[in-house]
Design goal:
two-stranded antiparallel ribbon, about 45% helix, 2 helices
Length: about 110
């Protein structure tokens, strides 16, 4: 019976992982579509108009002091914070921007 429960648990984990990968694919495709449509309407995009991946966003309080050191070859960045901070990757941000059509929330609209 334990082997059956392990198999069921493994299948559930794989299903959850596959669903997350599908949401990531939807988010990336939506981003690509958004960038293409914007480029079709306005012509070649300025460097700051297209959302490029991968990226992270760091958020913290307004009184937090942030230090940044960049390697000479710009391949490494080191941040220091004197207070707590949160890291958000591109998938989390794209989801918040609606690039997954709210499929991650279970709330579906008529859009």
């Amino acid at each position: 019976k334990q082997w059956y429960q392990r198999r069921v648990r493994g299948i559930k984990e794989k299903k959850k992982h596959a669903q997350e990968l599908m949401l990531q694919l939807i988010a990336y495709r939506t981003l690509i579509q958004r960038n293409r449509e914007l480029e079709e309407r306005t012509g070649p995009l300025p460097e700051n108009a297209a959302i490029k991946v991968p990226f992270i966003i760091l958020s913290t309080g307004p009184s937090t002091q942030i230090g940044l050191e960049v390697a000479d070859d710009k391949t490494e960045y080191e941040f220091t914070f004197n207070e707590l901070f949160e890291i958000h990757n591109e998938i989390a941000i794209l989801k918040k921007m609606g690039f997954c059509y709210n499929l991650d929330t279970g709330v579906y609209g008529s859009e």
